[in-house]
Amino acid sequence: MKKRILAFLLAVSIAVSVLVLPVSAASINNTALQTAITLGAVPTGQELGANVTRGAFAKMLVSFSTYRESVDAQGTVGTLYRDVPGTSQWAPYIRIAVQQGWMNGYTDGSFRPDNTVTLEEACAAVLKLLSYKTTDLTGSFPQAQLNKAQQIGLRDQLTCTQGQAMTYEQCTLLLYNALRANTASGSAYGSSLGFTVSNGQVDTSSVLLKSRKGPFVAEEGTQLPFTPVSVYRNDKTSASAELNKYDVYYYSESLQTVWIYTRRAAGRITAVSPSASAPTALTVAGSTYSLGSSAVASKISSLNGGGVGEIVTLLLGMDNEVADVITGEEADSVFYGVVQTANRSLVEDNGADVLQKISVMCTDGITRTVNIDKSLNYPTGWLVEISVTPEGEQVTAIESKSVSGTINDTATALGDYALADDVQILETTSEGLAGTVRPSRIAGTKLNALTVRYYTLNEQGQIDRLILNDVTGDLWKYGVLDDVKNLAVNAGSILGTLTGSGSSGSGSSSSGNSSSSSGSTGSTTNTTTVTDDLRDVLVPTTSEILWGVIDGSLLSTVWNRITSSSGSLLSIGLKQLADITGQPMSTILNFVGGGATYICYVNGSQASFSTSVKYPVLAGGLAVRQNVNGTVKAMIQLMPMKIDKVGAASVMSNGTRYETADDMQVYLWYKGQYYATKLSEVSSEGYYLTGWYDNFGCAAGKRVRVIVAVKKD
């Protein structure tokens, strides 16, 4: 439901942007305008700077009342005023407004619907809408009405003065303020209309959803009842409102918006619940879906011959709810994805046998589980095709099929190929991890044969499925190392490695050089001295690294710490240190052997990673690449930088702009402890900010994954 509301409100926001806004509307409360449009008080395309007539204001009043649903019942018969015939567009609204006592006509029998409404007239009408009576006011018209309106907040943000004509912008604000204001009985007026009002804020989502109609399933040639201004396809903005057969769609005529879904789920029904005769949910290919209506449920019901064992294609709408079910040859579907797991188990339905199930993450983001021949092998990470026909499901391994080019800035094309409006993009790793990617995430990214694993084309020659190989880096797990001592758990092993007792690297080479001049006894003595000296060489602390970033001396801080005993380091063959200053820390830490348990903070919670080897991470941000079963495949130190300025979705460091990850983590660091927080809480001038970004080769990487804040006090 939350996702549905967010998608709907996003559409409202875009619909609002198509209105003709005058310069003076720049300060208008956007939520007020959204609400007015959805309730039908402001027509789409209305010039907000235009004056509101008395007839139009009657419509606005009714739209913001409990009578908005009964306007059609007013009919067109009869004349209430001599200048308002029953056929007038304002007639039903004026009739309701007058009957409820919100507005009045003139003594000459006219209503004067084309006259503009003034501030005092509008305030008087809205006060009556809120059930205030003349006896609740102090003084006489119009000052009594204007004072009361000011007192209860109706005139907040209004610049209109007494006697001045009200514009659509000002009337919208006045009526939205009414939702937040208290009625004569003391309760928030918006609550009586179904809105949630709390601390002066109005949650309009539940009411806005009521303007949406659907779901509907398109047939050949289906046309919308209006020309939409805003179009969403699979929850993404689209330029085309074309409906194809079996598309699931919803629309809001008042918002001039349509939502189209082309998502499918296909396979054998393996379970229904709560009962076979009256199902509300079903399981297909290992995933469970809710049935969107009783009509859909009847197709699955055992009373109509449906249910477990049937091969179906599900047409999915908002929140992946089943809008319809297709069977027979029309249910044929093909899916592409990467193997997550393959498991064999014992079954004893008709004697003991082995059943193999394969789990595949498909390009549409759905993980499908299919039964396959027990003798076949599909390793984790393999690319496969799942074919669904009336005869059943079949899994086939597929060879890589690559394409090269750059995703354009609007994320609508890859090289010479256009991307379909409903393109499905799946990010994968060779270990089998997978997740969907929105096109805009890889806008401007150059792809090649190594980063594109597979793609397909639709009938129009557009790429409709794209499987990538670790392009974004988003499948890695990011966090911060809690304690740098994790790198020095086995001090003896580290010392042994560096002195050459367990390595043939630089330490051994150094020992050899010593032997050539002083013999084995000298070498042994020298090794003992080196070991003693190295016991005083400590790995840099988190504090040193953070402050090294803050004051710009990161490299000197780190290298000075490690090279503090230059005689000992030289004696073990690290004379090349001066030549490698500035290279990644892995140059030094490659000497470190033996396993460790890394205690980290990931997404605000403490987590541990046990490894058989030590990885080149010191402190601060780190990236962990995992297998599907959660074991560590690799661990890399994120690159630090001092943040000079924080933007909406980016930061600046030394004149360079870095985009922030959607799931970026923010921590406050104090006295050796990380505290998860929000960027809004630490982005002021009162904090030093250190950003940690991935820099290990992902084509669409170099995103800030972690920010660590240190308070300046």
TrEMBL record:
Ranges where the record places region Disordered: 500-528
Record domain SLH: where: 77-140
UniProt keyword terms in alphabetical order: Repeat, Signal
Signal sequence segment: 1-25
Name the UniProt record assigns to this protein: SLH domain-containing protein
